[in-house]
Input
Amino acid sequence: ENTTLSSSSPPETVNDSFRRGTPLLPPCPVSILSGFLGSGKTTLIQYILKSPDHGKRIGKVDTEAADLDYILIEASGMANPGPIASVFWLDDALQSRLKLDGIITLVDGVHILKQLATTEEAAQQIAYADRIILNKVDLLEQEKKKTPHSDGPTADDVESKLRQLHPTAPILRTSFSKIPDLDWILGADCFGGSDRLEELESIWDNAGLPSGNQTPLGQDGSHGHSHSHHGHDGQDCQDCQHQAHENAKENHHHHHHHTESISTIAFQQPGSLDLVKLNAWLADILWPNQDEMDKVLTSMLSHPSTAAGVHSMQKESMQQQEIFRIKGIVSAAYREDYDIDEEKERQNRQNYCLADTGLDRRRFIVQAVHDLWEVYPGSDDLIFQPGEKRVCKLVVIGKHLKEQELRSGFQNCFSKKEGLVVGSNP
Output
């Protein structure tokens, strides 16, 4: 079943395209609509379907994809959107018509603070989001007017909490799930090669990194960070040490919250990255202990009595680092020993590689969701200008983040070849 909101001639089906040997139809964007119970997801879907403004044919998941302009997937209230997103973030080589457009998370402004205090799912949904909709702000305002001196949260209080969990995602305040400009969520292209440099740069402004010059990592270890309490190694951060000391002096007791372990770390360093090293590092942090788990599972098939090994690994994984999202803009350096097999990549090196330095003129975008990642060049509008300082920026959102290890791993991805690191301080 689908709701037709604009008319056009019947599109070619995927099967017709395969039979004729012609390229597939343009990708059909898919957005994942996440949000805790009662946040207003169903209300938003009804609002979108009834709106005449976007001119798109919106369909349910069980419809024929070739008949649609756009697909919205409503996740259950307790669902983790990360694994769902992984299903639709497909490799271009598969020629899928489905293209992941973004993860949208609705938040019940009235109840979200209590939900964050009692569940981890609500925090995960916020951490994975590309767009956050802070809904029911009218009820927050009404409650504050009734009891102006109460301790009840304001919309600013709630948004501040959301920013602690996810400093980089744009936040829109709504009532009754009504979004004035539906293009903000439909066709946002959050996983495409964006040419909106201002929007990409704003990620680091929101993450707490200062604009302009930044001391390279390794000299003073400077970094931007945000914690919903502090989920990473507190000893690595002077701010965390100071806060811990102040709390001890005041003998302040912190109640347990499920969001304590979720945090954001932002890195910024002049120079250029070796993309081979970058991809290897991303595989290491997104697929931790993969070999060990494979050995245990293989052993279980032969010796069922080894099931205790799985229980032991599950117990250890409770404090294991888990990456939810990574976003970045980086400068890339080619390696002379890197064997290029694909003709497209060979042409790219000829067109974009600076012969005197080995640097690529394009900015590269880094995206990771759950256990999948991609590093790809942005549009030609994102090309570095001659003499422009090259800076690599990365934001990591996750659980039990090990800041020192992440910082060290990121630094090790930088090109070591003499003359390739451009724009770093002497």
User: Anything to note?
Assistant: Residues 238-250 form the longest helix (13 residues). The CA atoms of residues 58 and 70 lie 5 Å apart. DSSP finds 14 helices and 14 strands in the chain. The mean pLDDT is 75.
